[in-house]
Each structure stands twice: as structure tokens, then as C-alpha cells.
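G., the chain you wanted modeled:
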Amino acid sequence: MSGLRLIRVLMHLVIGLWTCAVVFPLIDTAGRQLRIRRWSIELLAICRVQVTLSNPQNSAAAARALIVANHVSWLDIFVINSIQTCQFVGKSDIRDWPLLGWLCEKGGTIFIARGKQRDVRRIFQGLVTSIEAGARVAFFPEGTTAAQGSVLPFHANLFEAALDAKAPVQPYALRYLDQHGALHPAADFIGDMTFAQSMLAILQAPPMRAELMQLAPIDTTGLHRRDLAVIARAAIAEALGVTEKEEVA
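Predicted structure as C-alpha cells:
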């Protein structure tokens, strides 16, 4: 059955490629966002990933904010987009993902080369402008994926965009669970694992549930970007039950 699901994923990718190349140039931003959300929902369904959105703190999501989350898998982008379409900031390695890399780029992902501060400066003002205009801008402050049960130190640089835009930071905590409520091992996308290996592992594994936890928005007034990184990481780590001491890179 995993072979059949792989064929369905490949066909779904082809549909996405066609949509980006032919349909996107003809429709407005709202139309593109709707199609990205639908495509993400369908991809997750093929991969047998059920998404649930929880609100453990009973907090209202900020209407205009910089969205941050912990990073587990390539699935994360599509899990978040299935709930709320965002403009993601991602590492340039994503461009190398077969087919999905091109789709992410056409879907509005902004790529930053690892370790190049010039790239951060180049895109920074665009992020501020987008947030000020009400766009949903999201990034993964860890800068790379981490094994479930851990949260890496948060990089503070891009938190500056929320300060300049005078907008709150909206954190989300994300985890993937099996049918017993335990962390699902097939979700981890770490080390030397390739995108293809991760995809096959997910397709061959039992179904999983992606739990996206909406946490309380963080008011940025009077704070430094490093403060925001510390507060956001602490909130996400607490929601996930992680107790490591390291907080900011």
C-alpha cells in the first residue's frame, strides 16, 4: 500500500507543479492562499497525517503577528498551511527537495542561506513590510529540524522583524503522535536523512496525528529580540514538556 501512496504523492506533486506554473500567474493572493491550503490538506491526507489544532491556554490568536514554531519535519510547513496559509522563511536547503522545493518557492517561501548574515539583512525589510501589511509571516527559529522530545536553541535575528513592525510574536508548538498518544518516530527528519528517505518512512509507517498547539501571543513592547527568542522558546518547550536549559543561539 505504501507504493500506491507514493504514486498518489507523485501525482499530487505534479498537480501542484501545474497549479504553480499555470494557475498562480492568473489569480490573486487570496486565490493562491486558498489553493495552497487545499493542496496541503490533500498532501497530508495522502500521507495519513491528521491535523488537530489545540488551544491549551485558551488564548486568542494575534491577527497580525510574526509566527514561530518548533521544527520537526518537512511536514511542518504543510501542517501549518493546512490551518493558516503563511509566508515562510526557510533555509536554502529546502530548494534542493525534489519537486517540493520548487513548490515551496512558488508558494512564497523566502530562502536564507545558512550562516550568511547578508541574506538576513537583504530580506529583513521585506518581512517587516509584509507583517505591517497584515501578511502571515512564519519561520522556525531553531534553523533546522530537531528530534521530537527536544527543542534546539532559538536564533534571535528574525525576531527583530516583529519589533520593527510593532507586532506580537505568535508561537505554536508542534508534535506528531501515534495512535497511543506517544511521539511518532517516523516524523523525525534529522541527521543525514534525505527528503526521499523521510517521505518513504512516513508512507510506510502507521498513521500519525500532527498536534498544532496555539500558544498565547507575546507582546513585543519594550523587549529585545533575544528576549523574544527566550520567551518564545520557553513557551514552546513548556507546551511540549521539554526541559533543556539552552534557549538562544
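The longest helix spans residues 2-23.

Shout if anything looks off.
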